[in-house]
Design brief:
This protein has about 200 residues and is mainly alpha-helical. It contains 10 helices and no strands. α2 (about 35-45) crosses α3. GO terms for molecular function: DNA-binding transcription factor activity; transcription cis-regulatory region binding.
């Protein structure tokens, strides 16, 4: 019996996800320049040609992963803003969610993809344009309004809100990289990071 249109779409979506999952692992280990489509195919247990059926190039795959990484960072901030409580309580909630996700290897690897995207000259032009676009929502720019609100409520220190947001994400990225290098590394309590805002 032939598959329905919905079944075909589900298979296509799952295979695309499998390729992206495999590519994330390979890009994280080998970097953008050294990765080949054949490496991604091998990691995904798919044929070289089948990967090309879903994606035109490794650059397209990398760009999709950068978009996913950026979106996931912004989504967690947007979710935190829906939580009850003060701005500082919302930042603490967000920090706890991020730390909890550290146990999911894929989430941590997205941090590496964003670091590659913003530091490597070899990334696709589309990624460079995305990151420099005025419409691009960076996690730092999305966190700043929450910090400003906390400062207006006198619960966050009166320092430059952009500098505070940058320091916050530097701390988070550092912990993510440390966790990749040392999987057994203890993740601090969210309160430790929150102290920087007080």
């Amino acid at each position: 019996m032939p598959r329905s249109r919905e079944q075909n779409l589900e298979i296509r979506n799952q295979r695309s996800e499998d390729i992206l999952h495999a590519a994330l692992n390979v890009f994280s280990r080998r970097g953008m320049v050294a990765t080949k489509i054949s490496d991604i195919a091998k990691e995904a247990h798919l044929s070289h040609g089948l990967v090309y059926h879903y994606f035109a190039s490794k650059e397209e795959i990398f760009t999709r992963l950068v978009r996913r990484a950026a979106d996931s960072s912004v989504q967690i901030i947007e979710q935190s803003q829906l939580q009850a409580g003060t701005p500082l309580a919302k930042i603490k909630w967000m920090t706890e969610q991020i730390f909890q996700s550290f146990s999911e290897g894929q989430y941590i690897l997205l941090f590496l993809i964003m670091i590659q995207a913003s530091t490597s000259d070899a990334v696709p032009d589309e990624v460079k344009q995305l990151l420099s676009s005025p419409e691009f929502k960076s996690p730092v720019s999305c966190l700043v309004p929450l910090i400003v609100e906390g400062q207006q409520r006198q619960e966050i220190i009166q320092q430059d809100p952009v500098q505070l947001a940058v320091a916050y994400y530097a701390f988070i990225q550092g912990l993510a990289i440390n966790k990749l290098q040392w999987p057994q590394a203890p993740v601090p309590d969210a309160e430790l990071i929150i102290k920087m805002f007080k």
